[in-house]
Request: fold
Amino acid sequence: MIVADSNAIAETSDLFGAASRRERVVDWQAPGPVAKAAAAMSGLDVMCAIRDGVLPEPPMARLIDFRLSVAEPGRIVMELEPHEGLENTIGLLHGATAAALLDTAMGCAISTMLPAGQGAVTLDLKLTYLRPLSVKSGTISAEGKVMKLGRQTSYAEGWVRDGAGNLAVHATATFSMVGEAPREK
Reply:
């Protein structure tokens, strides 16, 4: 059994005070109507519409506060201005931040290659963390690129770089293809 040091506990009482409290309000558009508006669009058209502000970003992008900056066939780049709301207890960005960025960037990269009515969902995601990220890292970019587009499964690779362009995280992922492309009559 681990017993807390009473002196250490006394020193932490200010950690819950008003001066240490932060608040962040997150708003988003309901995803259902956005999905309905995007249903007849190709994946690339949807990504370009989000990038250009024609369609709102998904709720997860608003929650973490990242944005789509590049949408090209087979390639997506997301950007994030790191903030303390994403930090863990040792003052670094939580690893889930990079995971969410890469999962999104790689899945969206695959979507850019798909016709209306098709999508991709993550089957597996492997990340290798090479250097820590923090609020001092500058604008963080996450790039996703299609490595192989298949009928049932597709593969993507991704990279997170800090503001100086240093590679911080590398990822690979497998995606399952869902939905069906409209058939020609």
